[in-house]
Amino acid sequence: MPPNIFSRILWPDAPPAPVPKAADAVRVGLLGASRISPRAVIGPAKALASVIVHGVAARDGKKAEAFAKKHGIPKWYTGYEAMLNDPEIDAVYIALPNGHHAEWTLKAIHAGKHVLLEKPSASNATESAAILAATQTQDAKNARIVVLENFHNLFHPALHRARDLVRAGAVGNVHSASVRLCFPNIFGKDDIRFDYALGGGINMDLGTYACSALRFMLDAEPLRVTSATPTTLVRPDVDGEMAATLDFPDGVAASYVVSMVRPWISFVCSGLEGMKPMLEIKGDKGTLSLSVFVLPQLLHKLTVVPTTTTTITADDATQHVAETVYGEGGNTTYWYSLRAFAARIRGAEEPEPQYWIPLEWSVKNQRCVDMVYEKAGLRVRGEA
Ligand SMILES: NC(=O)C1=CN([C@@H]2O[C@H](COP(=O)(O)OP(=O)(O)OC[C@H]3O[C@@H](n4cnc5c(N)ncnc54)[C@H](OP(=O)(O)O)[C@@H]3O)[C@@H](O)[C@H]2O)C=CC1
Ligand SMILES: O=C1OC[C@@H](O)[C@H](O)[C@H]1O
Protein backbone atom coordinates (compact mmCIF):
# COMPACT_ATOMS: atom_id res chain seq x y z
CA MET A 1 0.00 0.00 0.00
CA PRO A 2 1.58 3.35 -0.96
CA PRO A 3 2.05 5.65 2.01
CA ASN A 4 -0.38 8.41 1.12
CA ILE A 5 -2.59 10.25 3.60
CA PHE A 6 -5.58 7.92 3.06
CA SER A 7 -3.65 4.67 3.30
CA ARG A 8 -1.86 5.93 6.38
CA ILE A 9 -5.09 6.68 8.17
CA LEU A 10 -6.74 3.45 6.99
CA TRP A 11 -3.71 1.24 7.55
CA PRO A 12 -4.27 0.29 11.20
CA ASP A 13 -7.55 -1.40 10.33
CA ALA A 14 -6.82 -2.39 6.75
CA PRO A 15 -3.26 -3.69 6.59
CA PRO A 16 -1.88 -5.11 3.35
CA ALA A 17 -2.34 -8.77 2.41
CA PRO A 18 -1.20 -11.17 5.13
CA VAL A 19 2.33 -12.50 4.78
CA PRO A 20 3.25 -16.19 5.19
CA LYS A 21 4.39 -17.01 8.72
CA ALA A 22 7.87 -18.11 9.72
CA ALA A 23 8.24 -21.58 11.24
CA ASP A 24 9.39 -20.01 14.51
CA ALA A 25 6.79 -17.21 14.52
CA VAL A 26 5.93 -16.04 18.05
CA ARG A 27 2.41 -17.19 19.00
CA VAL A 28 0.84 -14.28 20.83
CA GLY A 29 -2.22 -14.43 23.05
CA LEU A 30 -4.27 -11.32 23.75
CA LEU A 31 -4.88 -11.00 27.47
CA GLY A 32 -8.16 -9.12 27.37
CA ALA A 33 -10.33 -8.52 24.32
CA SER A 34 -9.33 -4.89 24.38
CA ARG A 35 -10.25 -2.06 22.03
CA ILE A 36 -6.64 -1.28 21.23
CA SER A 37 -5.54 -4.82 20.29
CA PRO A 38 -6.75 -4.76 16.64
CA ARG A 39 -4.70 -1.65 16.02
CA ALA A 40 -1.72 -2.54 18.21
CA VAL A 41 -1.32 -6.26 17.49
CA ILE A 42 -3.89 -7.99 15.26
CA GLY A 43 -3.41 -5.70 12.25
CA PRO A 44 0.38 -5.39 12.42
CA ALA A 45 0.77 -9.14 13.03
CA LYS A 46 -0.88 -9.86 9.68
CA ALA A 47 1.99 -8.08 7.98
CA LEU A 48 4.73 -9.69 10.09
CA ALA A 49 6.08 -13.17 9.33
CA SER A 50 7.42 -13.34 12.88
CA VAL A 51 4.08 -13.05 14.74
CA ILE A 52 0.90 -15.14 14.87
CA VAL A 53 -2.06 -14.05 16.97
CA HIS A 54 -2.99 -17.46 18.33
CA GLY A 55 -5.50 -16.76 21.10
CA VAL A 56 -7.57 -14.28 23.03
CA ALA A 57 -8.71 -14.48 26.64
CA ALA A 58 -11.48 -12.46 28.25
CA ARG A 59 -13.11 -12.59 31.65
CA ASP A 60 -16.28 -13.58 29.83
CA GLY A 61 -15.73 -16.57 27.54
CA LYS A 62 -18.52 -15.50 25.19
CA LYS A 63 -16.82 -12.16 24.66
CA ALA A 64 -13.54 -13.95 23.93
CA GLU A 65 -15.25 -16.27 21.44
CA ALA A 66 -16.99 -13.43 19.61
CA PHE A 67 -13.75 -11.44 19.48
CA ALA A 68 -11.80 -14.46 18.21
CA LYS A 69 -14.33 -15.16 15.45
CA LYS A 70 -14.46 -11.53 14.41
CA HIS A 71 -10.69 -11.33 14.05
CA GLY A 72 -9.95 -14.85 12.80
CA ILE A 73 -8.10 -15.90 15.97
CA PRO A 74 -7.99 -19.71 16.33
CA LYS A 75 -8.24 -20.07 20.14
CA TRP A 76 -10.21 -18.35 22.88
CA TYR A 77 -10.27 -18.77 26.63
CA THR A 78 -12.54 -17.97 29.53
CA GLY A 79 -10.35 -16.11 32.00
CA TYR A 80 -6.76 -15.07 31.65
CA GLU A 81 -5.25 -17.96 33.66
CA ALA A 82 -6.50 -20.45 31.07
CA MET A 83 -4.45 -18.75 28.38
CA LEU A 84 -1.39 -18.47 30.61
CA ASN A 85 -1.59 -22.24 31.16
CA ASP A 86 -1.63 -23.01 27.44
CA PRO A 87 1.81 -24.12 26.21
CA GLU A 88 0.83 -23.13 22.66
CA ILE A 89 1.06 -19.48 23.69
CA ASP A 90 4.60 -18.02 23.67
CA ALA A 91 3.82 -14.41 24.54
CA VAL A 92 0.92 -12.33 25.78
CA TYR A 93 -0.21 -8.82 24.93
CA ILE A 94 -1.51 -7.12 28.07
CA ALA A 95 -3.84 -4.20 27.37
CA LEU A 96 -5.84 -4.16 30.58
CA PRO A 97 -6.68 -1.14 32.72
CA ASN A 98 -3.41 0.33 34.02
CA GLY A 99 -4.06 -0.85 37.55
CA HIS A 100 -4.04 -4.48 36.38
CA HIS A 101 -0.83 -4.31 34.33
CA ALA A 102 1.61 -5.35 37.05
CA GLU A 103 -0.53 -8.15 38.46
CA TRP A 104 -1.00 -9.89 35.09
CA THR A 105 2.52 -9.22 33.88
CA LEU A 106 3.89 -10.90 36.98
CA LYS A 107 1.55 -13.87 36.50
CA ALA A 108 2.54 -14.12 32.84
CA ILE A 109 6.25 -14.05 33.66
CA HIS A 110 5.74 -16.77 36.27
CA ALA A 111 3.92 -18.81 33.64
CA GLY A 112 6.97 -18.48 31.38
CA LYS A 113 5.36 -16.11 28.86
CA HIS A 114 6.96 -13.12 27.19
CA VAL A 115 4.95 -9.93 27.62
CA LEU A 116 4.15 -7.01 25.35
CA LEU A 117 2.78 -4.66 27.98
CA GLU A 118 0.71 -1.58 27.27
CA LYS A 119 1.78 1.74 28.67
CA PRO A 120 2.04 2.72 31.47
CA SER A 121 3.88 -0.38 32.69
CA ALA A 122 2.16 -0.32 36.09
CA SER A 123 0.31 1.83 38.62
CA ASN A 124 3.54 3.24 39.99
CA ALA A 125 7.32 2.85 39.92
CA THR A 126 7.35 0.35 42.79
CA GLU A 127 5.14 -1.98 40.77
CA SER A 128 7.25 -1.43 37.66
CA ALA A 129 10.34 -2.34 39.68
CA ALA A 130 8.61 -5.56 40.78
CA ILE A 131 8.15 -6.48 37.11
CA LEU A 132 11.81 -5.80 36.49
CA ALA A 133 12.76 -7.96 39.47
CA ALA A 134 10.56 -10.81 38.21
CA THR A 135 12.50 -10.87 34.94
CA GLN A 136 15.75 -11.16 36.88
CA THR A 137 14.98 -14.41 38.70
CA GLN A 138 16.94 -17.46 37.59
CA ASP A 139 13.82 -19.07 36.09
CA ALA A 140 13.00 -15.98 34.05
CA LYS A 141 16.60 -15.66 32.91
CA ASN A 142 16.72 -19.33 31.90
CA ALA A 143 13.51 -18.85 29.90
CA ARG A 144 14.99 -15.61 28.47
CA ILE A 145 11.74 -13.82 29.26
CA VAL A 146 11.22 -10.62 27.30
CA VAL A 147 8.98 -7.84 28.62
CA LEU A 148 8.47 -4.70 26.55
CA GLU A 149 6.43 -1.67 27.55
CA ASN A 150 4.69 -0.75 24.33
CA PHE A 151 5.89 2.81 23.72
CA HIS A 152 5.26 2.09 20.06
CA ASN A 153 5.97 5.66 18.92
CA LEU A 154 9.56 5.46 20.16
CA PHE A 155 10.22 2.74 17.56
CA HIS A 156 9.13 4.89 14.62
CA PRO A 157 11.86 6.33 12.35
CA ALA A 158 10.45 9.86 12.64
CA LEU A 159 11.28 9.90 16.36
CA HIS A 160 14.77 8.56 15.68
CA ARG A 161 15.42 11.11 12.96
CA ALA A 162 14.33 13.85 15.39
CA ARG A 163 16.63 12.56 18.12
CA ASP A 164 19.53 12.13 15.69
CA LEU A 165 19.15 15.75 14.63
CA VAL A 166 19.29 16.94 18.23
CA ARG A 167 22.28 14.71 18.96
CA ALA A 168 24.03 16.10 15.86
CA GLY A 169 23.66 19.61 17.21
CA ALA A 170 20.92 20.80 14.87
CA VAL A 171 19.51 23.07 17.59
CA GLY A 172 22.81 23.69 19.35
CA ASN A 173 22.93 23.42 23.12
CA VAL A 174 19.49 22.38 24.27
CA HIS A 175 17.97 24.64 26.91
CA SER A 176 14.30 23.66 26.90
CA ALA A 177 11.83 21.02 25.74
CA SER A 178 8.08 20.74 25.71
CA VAL A 179 5.25 18.38 24.90
CA ARG A 180 1.60 19.16 24.20
CA LEU A 181 -0.92 16.34 23.98
CA CYS A 182 -4.47 17.58 24.35
CA PHE A 183 -7.69 16.04 23.07
CA PRO A 184 -11.40 16.22 23.77
CA ASN A 185 -12.64 13.30 25.84
CA ILE A 186 -13.38 10.73 23.14
CA PHE A 187 -13.78 7.93 25.70
CA GLY A 188 -16.27 9.43 28.15
CA LYS A 189 -15.84 10.14 31.85
CA ASP A 190 -16.72 6.58 32.88
CA ASP A 191 -13.82 5.13 30.92
CA ILE A 192 -11.08 3.07 32.62
CA ARG A 193 -8.83 6.11 32.03
CA PHE A 194 -10.70 8.09 34.68
CA ASP A 195 -11.10 5.43 37.38
CA TYR A 196 -8.58 5.84 40.19
CA ALA A 197 -9.00 2.21 41.30
CA LEU A 198 -7.96 1.09 37.79
CA GLY A 199 -4.88 3.33 37.67
CA GLY A 200 -6.67 6.13 35.87
CA GLY A 201 -5.78 9.78 35.41
CA ILE A 202 -4.64 11.65 32.33
CA ASN A 203 -1.10 11.82 33.64
CA MET A 204 -1.05 7.99 33.54
CA ASP A 205 -2.60 7.86 30.09
CA LEU A 206 -1.01 10.75 28.18
CA GLY A 207 1.49 12.05 30.75
CA THR A 208 3.35 8.79 30.33
CA TYR A 209 3.83 9.65 26.62
CA ALA A 210 5.07 13.11 27.60
CA CYS A 211 7.59 11.73 30.09
CA SER A 212 8.81 9.10 27.64
CA ALA A 213 9.17 11.52 24.72
CA LEU A 214 11.08 14.07 26.82
CA ARG A 215 13.35 11.40 28.30
CA PHE A 216 13.91 9.85 24.87
CA MET A 217 14.76 13.13 23.17
CA LEU A 218 16.89 14.52 25.99
CA ASP A 219 18.57 11.20 26.77
CA ALA A 220 18.30 12.07 30.44
CA GLU A 221 16.18 11.74 33.57
CA PRO A 222 14.26 14.58 35.21
CA LEU A 223 16.01 15.81 38.35
CA ARG A 224 12.89 17.28 39.87
CA VAL A 225 9.38 18.39 39.07
CA THR A 226 9.17 22.13 39.69
CA SER A 227 5.42 22.49 39.24
CA ALA A 228 2.47 20.23 38.52
CA THR A 229 -1.04 21.52 38.15
CA PRO A 230 -3.97 19.17 37.75
CA THR A 231 -5.92 21.87 35.96
CA THR A 232 -9.09 19.80 35.78
CA LEU A 233 -10.14 16.95 38.03
CA VAL A 234 -12.68 14.49 36.62
CA ARG A 235 -13.24 13.21 40.16
CA PRO A 236 -11.17 13.33 43.37
CA ASP A 237 -7.54 12.42 42.63
CA VAL A 238 -8.33 11.79 38.95
CA ASP A 239 -6.78 14.36 36.68
CA GLY A 240 -8.39 15.20 33.35
CA GLU A 241 -5.71 17.74 32.49
CA MET A 242 -2.19 18.06 33.89
CA ALA A 243 0.45 20.73 33.30
CA ALA A 244 3.95 20.09 34.62
CA THR A 245 7.39 21.66 34.54
CA LEU A 246 10.50 19.59 35.13
CA ASP A 247 14.21 20.27 35.51
CA PHE A 248 16.52 18.05 33.49
CA PRO A 249 20.33 17.98 33.85
CA ASP A 250 22.47 20.75 32.33
CA GLY A 251 19.88 23.41 33.01
CA VAL A 252 17.32 22.04 30.56
CA ALA A 253 13.81 23.19 31.48
CA ALA A 254 11.05 20.87 30.29
CA SER A 255 7.31 21.19 30.39
CA TYR A 256 4.24 19.33 29.29
CA VAL A 257 0.52 19.72 29.16
CA VAL A 258 -1.74 16.72 28.65
CA SER A 259 -5.50 16.81 28.57
CA MET A 260 -8.56 14.86 27.60
CA VAL A 261 -11.18 17.22 28.90
CA ARG A 262 -11.00 20.16 26.54
CA PRO A 263 -14.31 20.89 24.84
CA TRP A 264 -14.51 20.25 21.10
CA ILE A 265 -15.36 23.88 20.54
CA SER A 266 -11.95 24.94 21.89
CA PHE A 267 -10.30 22.96 19.10
CA VAL A 268 -12.62 24.34 16.48
CA CYS A 269 -11.66 27.83 17.67
CA SER A 270 -7.94 27.04 17.45
CA GLY A 271 -8.35 25.69 13.91
CA LEU A 272 -7.58 22.18 15.27
CA GLU A 273 -4.01 23.38 15.78
CA GLY A 274 -4.34 22.95 19.54
CA MET A 275 -5.29 19.30 19.09
CA LYS A 276 -2.11 18.52 17.16
CA PRO A 277 0.30 16.66 19.41
CA MET A 278 3.58 18.59 19.53
CA LEU A 279 7.09 17.89 20.72
CA GLU A 280 9.59 20.75 20.74
CA ILE A 281 13.27 20.91 21.60
CA LYS A 282 14.86 24.34 21.80
CA GLY A 283 18.54 25.17 21.77
CA ASP A 284 20.76 28.20 21.36
CA LYS A 285 20.87 27.65 17.59
CA GLY A 286 17.30 26.71 16.79
CA THR A 287 14.08 24.85 17.52
CA LEU A 288 13.16 21.32 16.49
CA SER A 289 9.46 20.50 16.29
CA LEU A 290 7.85 17.15 15.65
CA SER A 291 4.09 17.21 15.34
CA VAL A 292 1.90 14.11 15.90
CA PHE A 293 4.84 12.44 17.65
CA VAL A 294 2.57 9.77 19.19
CA LEU A 295 1.15 8.51 15.88
CA PRO A 296 3.57 9.83 13.24
CA GLN A 297 2.30 7.23 10.75
CA LEU A 298 -0.87 9.26 10.30
CA LEU A 299 0.81 12.53 9.44
CA HIS A 300 3.55 14.63 10.98
CA LYS A 301 6.05 17.34 10.23
CA LEU A 302 9.61 17.43 11.48
CA THR A 303 11.14 20.89 11.32
CA VAL A 304 14.28 22.58 12.53
CA VAL A 305 14.13 26.35 12.40
CA PRO A 306 17.39 28.13 13.16
CA THR A 307 17.32 30.97 15.64
CA THR A 308 19.02 33.13 13.04
CA THR A 309 19.29 32.56 9.32
CA THR A 310 22.33 34.72 8.79
CA THR A 311 25.04 32.12 9.43
CA ILE A 312 23.64 29.18 7.49
CA THR A 313 25.94 27.37 5.10
CA ALA A 314 25.24 24.25 3.06
CA ASP A 315 26.84 21.93 5.59
CA ASP A 316 25.70 23.83 8.64
CA ALA A 317 23.86 21.52 11.03
CA THR A 318 21.53 24.37 11.87
CA GLN A 319 20.06 24.70 8.39
CA HIS A 320 16.30 24.57 7.98
CA VAL A 321 14.80 21.10 8.03
CA ALA A 322 11.22 20.35 6.99
CA GLU A 323 10.68 16.65 6.54
CA THR A 324 8.34 13.75 6.94
CA VAL A 325 9.79 10.35 7.81
CA TYR A 326 7.36 7.53 7.10
CA GLY A 327 9.90 4.69 6.96
CA GLU A 328 9.41 1.42 5.11
CA GLY A 329 6.02 1.29 3.41
CA GLY A 330 4.50 3.75 5.89
CA ASN A 331 4.34 1.06 8.54
CA THR A 332 2.74 1.96 11.83
CA THR A 333 4.41 2.59 15.16
CA TYR A 334 2.72 -0.60 16.40
CA TRP A 335 4.22 -2.64 13.55
CA TYR A 336 7.70 -1.43 14.48
CA SER A 337 7.36 -2.22 18.18
CA LEU A 338 5.74 -5.62 17.56
CA ARG A 339 8.50 -6.53 15.11
CA ALA A 340 11.19 -5.54 17.64
CA PHE A 341 9.42 -7.56 20.37
CA ALA A 342 9.30 -10.73 18.24
CA ALA A 343 12.90 -10.32 17.10
CA ARG A 344 14.08 -9.97 20.68
CA ILE A 345 12.22 -13.12 21.75
CA ARG A 346 13.76 -15.15 18.93
CA GLY A 347 17.22 -13.66 19.49
CA ALA A 348 17.17 -12.32 15.94
CA GLU A 349 19.14 -9.30 14.84
CA GLU A 350 17.56 -6.11 16.18
CA PRO A 351 15.56 -4.60 13.31
CA GLU A 352 15.81 -0.94 12.33
CA PRO A 353 15.77 1.49 14.02
CA GLN A 354 17.75 -0.83 16.34
CA TYR A 355 16.03 0.39 19.41
CA TRP A 356 14.87 -1.30 22.58
CA ILE A 357 13.19 -0.18 25.80
CA PRO A 358 14.76 -1.96 28.78
CA LEU A 359 12.55 -2.43 31.81
CA GLU A 360 14.92 -0.24 33.81
CA TRP A 361 13.88 2.56 31.46
CA SER A 362 10.21 1.77 32.06
CA VAL A 363 10.71 1.98 35.82
CA LYS A 364 12.27 5.43 35.37
CA ASN A 365 9.43 6.52 33.14
CA GLN A 366 6.92 5.53 35.78
CA ARG A 367 9.00 7.41 38.32
CA CYS A 368 8.60 10.53 36.18
CA VAL A 369 4.81 10.06 36.17
CA ASP A 370 4.81 9.46 39.95
CA MET A 371 6.92 12.58 40.64
CA VAL A 372 4.38 14.69 38.79
CA TYR A 373 1.54 13.27 40.91
CA GLU A 374 3.55 13.88 44.08
CA LYS A 375 4.19 17.51 43.11
CA ALA A 376 0.54 17.94 42.13
CA GLY A 377 -0.55 16.77 45.57
CA LEU A 378 -2.47 13.84 44.13
CA ARG A 379 -2.09 10.26 45.26
CA VAL A 380 0.42 8.19 43.30
CA ARG A 381 -1.70 5.55 41.58
CA GLY A 382 -2.03 2.30 43.45
CA GLU A 383 -1.97 4.02 46.85
CA ALA A 384 -4.94 3.12 49.02
N1 LIG B 1 -0.38 2.06 22.90
C1 LIG B 1 -1.51 2.67 22.55
O1 LIG B 1 -1.57 3.35 21.53
C2 LIG B 1 -2.68 2.54 23.41
C3 LIG B 1 -2.56 1.98 24.64
N2 LIG B 1 -3.64 1.82 25.42
C4 LIG B 1 -3.47 1.19 26.72
O2 LIG B 1 -4.07 -0.09 26.66
C5 LIG B 1 -4.78 -0.38 27.85
C6 LIG B 1 -6.23 -0.73 27.50
O3 LIG B 1 -6.84 0.35 26.84
P1 LIG B 1 -8.18 0.10 25.98
O4 LIG B 1 -7.92 -0.87 24.91
O5 LIG B 1 -8.69 1.43 25.64
O6 LIG B 1 -9.08 -0.53 27.11
P2 LIG B 1 -10.50 -1.30 27.12
O7 LIG B 1 -11.50 -0.38 27.69
O8 LIG B 1 -10.76 -1.94 25.83
O9 LIG B 1 -10.20 -2.38 28.23
C7 LIG B 1 -9.22 -3.36 28.04
C8 LIG B 1 -9.61 -4.64 28.75
O10 LIG B 1 -9.60 -4.41 30.14
C9 LIG B 1 -10.64 -5.18 30.74
N3 LIG B 1 -11.45 -4.26 31.52
C10 LIG B 1 -12.21 -3.26 31.06
N4 LIG B 1 -12.84 -2.63 32.09
C11 LIG B 1 -12.47 -3.27 33.20
C12 LIG B 1 -12.76 -3.10 34.55
N5 LIG B 1 -13.62 -2.16 34.98
N6 LIG B 1 -12.16 -3.88 35.44
C13 LIG B 1 -11.32 -4.83 35.04
N7 LIG B 1 -11.00 -5.05 33.74
C14 LIG B 1 -11.56 -4.27 32.83
C15 LIG B 1 -11.44 -5.84 29.65
O11 LIG B 1 -11.02 -7.19 29.60
P3 LIG B 1 -11.99 -8.39 29.11
O12 LIG B 1 -11.87 -8.36 27.62
O13 LIG B 1 -11.40 -9.57 29.75
O14 LIG B 1 -13.35 -8.07 29.58
C16 LIG B 1 -11.02 -5.08 28.41
O15 LIG B 1 -10.99 -5.86 27.27
C17 LIG B 1 -4.59 0.82 28.75
O16 LIG B 1 -3.52 0.56 29.61
C18 LIG B 1 -4.20 1.94 27.82
O17 LIG B 1 -3.33 2.88 28.42
C19 LIG B 1 -4.86 2.16 24.97
C20 LIG B 1 -5.04 2.75 23.75
C21 LIG B 1 -3.93 3.05 22.90
O1 LIG C 1 -2.38 6.47 22.04
C1 LIG C 1 -3.21 6.77 22.86
O2 LIG C 1 -4.14 7.71 22.58
C2 LIG C 1 -5.31 7.78 23.34
C3 LIG C 1 -5.07 7.34 24.73
O3 LIG C 1 -6.14 7.48 25.56
C4 LIG C 1 -4.48 6.00 24.75
O4 LIG C 1 -4.52 5.38 25.99
C5 LIG C 1 -3.16 6.21 24.22
O5 LIG C 1 -2.32 5.14 24.37
From TrEMBL:
Domain GFO/IDH/MocA-like oxidoreductase: 161-288
Keyword Lyase: no
One Pfam family in the UniProt entry: GFO_IDH_MocA_C3
Keywords: Oxidoreductase
Molecular function GO labels: D-xylose 1-dehydrogenase (NADP+) activity; nucleotide binding
Gfo/Idh/MocA-like oxidoreductase N-terminal domain sequence ranges: 26-139
Enzyme Commission numbers on file: 1.1.1.179
Top-level enzyme category: oxidoreductase
UniProt cross-references to InterPro entries, sorted A to Z: Gfo/Idh/MocA-like_OxRdtase_N (IPR000683), Gfo/Idh/MocA_domain (IPR050984), GFO_IDH_MocA-like_dom (IPR055170), NAD(P)-bd_dom_sf (IPR036291)
Superkingdom per UniProt: Eukaryota
Record field: catalytic activity: D-xylose + NADP(+) = D-xylono-1,5-lactone + NADPH + H(+)
Keyword match Oxidoreductase: yes
Family listed: Belongs to the Gfo/Idh/MocA family.
Protein name in the entry: D-xylose 1-dehydrogenase (NADP(+), D-xylono-1,5-lactone-forming)
Originating organism: Geranomyces variabilis
